[in-house]
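Protein in question filed below.

…
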Amino acid sequence: MKLPNKVITYNESIISKFPIVLTILRKVDCRAIELYSQVKNQIEDIDDFIDVLDCLFALGTITLNEKTRRLHYAM
């Protein structure tokens, strides 16, 4: 997980990618693969994308609807 420190700048960290994902999820719920296809130009590494989802889920910012398998903006 890339967090900002002396070596990794804020722009290289996953925290800088939070707004990219949240902007989309504020408008519409979507599946993870659909979300990745929308952000893959801005988040090139799929590992970073998964880390972003993990952090947002742990922070309670997004949830997963078990029935529809769609991510939902929870704030």
In short: The mean pLDDT is 95. Residues 15-73 form one domain. The radius of gyration is 12 Å. The first strand starts at residue 62 and ends at 65.
